Structure formats: C-alpha cells, structure tokens
Amino acid sequence: MTNDKRIMAEAAAWADRASHPDADLDDAAAFESWMNASPAHRAAFAEMIGLWRSDALSQAAAEVEQRADLRRPLRVPWRLAAPSALAMAAVCIAAVLVAPWMDHRTLETRRGETRTVALADGTSIRLNGDARLSIRQSPLWRAATLERGEAWFEVRHDGRPFVIDAGEGEVRVMGTAFNVDRMACGRAEVTLYRGAVRLRTRGGQILDLEPGDRAMLEHGRIRPTTHSLSTRPDWTDGWFDAEETTLGRLVAEIDRFSRTPVVIDGQASRIPVSGRFRLTDPPATLALIERAYDVRIDTTGETIVVRSGSRQPDRR
C-alpha cells in the first residue's frame, strides 16, 4: 500500500474514471503517462481498482455495515474507508482485474497466412494475409492501429470503448462485429455486420453505421458505398465476392493469400470484374482470370504480374 494521500487521491480519481464508458483517447494517454511515472502510482491504482471493482469486497463491506450499529450515514464511500485488511485483499484481486486490461502487443501475418487471436478482454481478431495490427489496452480504453492489411473484429462489450486507427480516420465501437481493410493506396474500407460503429475522420467528419453498412475513408472524407447482406467477411472463408469492383481490387485480395507477391499494371487494374473467386488457391484463380479477361499472367523474378492484353499464341 502507498501512504501518500495525493497519490491515493489521484488513484481513486482514475479508478472512478475507469468505471465510465465514455473515456476518450486523451484520457487514456494521460492515464498511461500517470501510470508510467512511478511504481507507487501503479500500486495505488491496483489497490483502488480492486476496491472499485470487487463484488467480494462489496459484499464484505455490506456485512460490516450490517453488523455495526451505525447511527448516521457514512461520510465517505466504504471503498475509501475500508479496513487495511480489505485493502490488502484488493491488491491481490486487482492482479486479476487489471492485468488483462494492460494488453500491449503487435500482431502480424505473412503473405498467404491468416491468424485469429483472442484478446484478454474476450475480443476476437482475425488478420488477413500481410497485415499488421498494434493493440493497446488499459482500464480506460481499448485501442488498435491497423498499420496495413485487413482485419475482422468481434469486439466484446465491457464498458470501455474500442477505437481502431485506420489511417484516414478511426472506428469507434463498444461491442460489435466489423471488418476494416486498410489498402495499400491509403484508403480504408469499413463494413459493419453486427452492432454499431462510429467513423470519424481526422478533420472531424462523423458517420454512424448500422448493420450492413459499408463506407470508405479516403482523402479526409467518409464515403458510404455498397450495402452488405453477409454475416461475416467473405475472405474469412477464403472467398472474394466481386460486385461493382475492379480487377485491381481482386488482385490485391489474391496477393494477401499468395506466398508469391502478385501485382497488376495500371491499365489492367481498371477492368471491371464480377463473380465469386476462391482466394485460397491463387494459381488456379489467376489462371481463371487469364482465361476470363483480357489479361495475361507473367512471372518476373519472384513476382507474379497481371498485365493487360491477352497472351498471343505461339505461331512457331
């Protein structure tokens, strides 16, 4: 336990703030700075958050109050007036309560690899190929930065917001299921499948999505696009449904599943495509594309290139 009254008062204030679901990232940054300033801060917060969150301690305090012949209401919350034995127990309980919240790590996949990760708070994240996602969680907030690639989120509601930085803007949720695709060109596409999310650009534009909504974050603006009737992203099952899209977008999806880089030239990338394409077998899908569209597939060094113009027959 710490004896510094100022630190304990600050810890109590942060513990109270952690119980509110509207904490923002400014609060989170200030809290992390305070926690990192001193081991005494971390010890005090562990004690306070244990007192704030423990059902066992709440029940114990209620029993103490029932046994005592109190003639007037307590002037301070029982949590701050708890006996030292209860406070010591709170520190032990806090190890269970706080540790899962302090989840800082980076998730990454290689080409041709998908990966599903369960966070300590119960949230599930599945990364598509060649993706990188940084996770930072604390008692006040949950945040992630999608540095590249695509990720499917199933966020568990626990009272804290979950904010995803997608480059052109952010996605703010409480508990829901959605997909974020941060493309190589800098744009980010967000598709909501369950729950509700709020999109916000760097310039402050806001758009709330409902299940089935899809929107693009690009050039500092939010642009609603098509409506999805699916219950989850097609890529999680190894498929890509092309509807009002381009060959360039399809090839970008194939590239994530291919262990060999796949690129496309500018003219071919604008060819409109439609249909359902299997992503888990890139060579077969590329061969299908070569037969169906006015393109040819070449291998240059260690890169597969999709070029405009059909392959000319060998006349020899």
Q: What structural class do the secondary elements suggest?
A: alpha+beta
Main β-sheet, in a few words? Answer: 13 strands, mixed
Low-confidence stretches: 69-97
Question: What global shape is seen?
Answer: elongated
Count of helical segments? Answer: 9
User: What distance separates the N and C termini?
Assistant: 87 Å
Number of DSSP strands? 18
Look at the structure and give the CATH class of the largest domain: Mainly Beta
Q: What percentage of amino acids are in beta strands?
A: 25-35%
Helix percentage range: 25-40%
* Rg: 26 Å
Write the CATH fold name of the largest domain: Jelly Rolls
Number of structural domains: 3
In the CATH hierarchy, the architecture of the largest domain is: Sandwich
Instruction: Output the helix-strand order.
Output: HHHHHHEEEEEEEEEEEEEEHEHEHEE
Mean pLDDT: 81
Tell me what the structure shows.
One of its GO terms (molecular function) is sigma factor antagonist activity. Keywords: Membrane, Transmembrane, Transmembrane helix. This is DUF4880 domain-containing protein. This protein has helices at residues 5-18, 25-37, 39-53, 55-67, 78-81, 84-98, 247-257, 266-269, 282-292, and strands at residues 104-108, 115-118, 124-127, 132-137, 142-154, 162-165, 169-173, 177-182, 188-194, 197-201, 206-209, 214-218, 221-224, 239-246, 262-264, 272-278, 295-300, 303-308. By secondary structure, it is an alpha+beta fold. The protein folds into 3 domains: 1-46; 103-226, Jelly Rolls; 238-308, Phage tail protein beta-alpha-beta fold. Strands 1, 2, 3, 4, 5, 6, 7, 8, 9, 10, 11, 12 and 13 form a 13-stranded mixed sheet that branches. Strands 15-18-17 form a 3-stranded mixed sheet. The chain has a two-stranded antiparallel sheet with strand order 14-16. Strand 10 and strand 11 form a beta hairpin. Helix 1 (5-18) crosses helix 3.
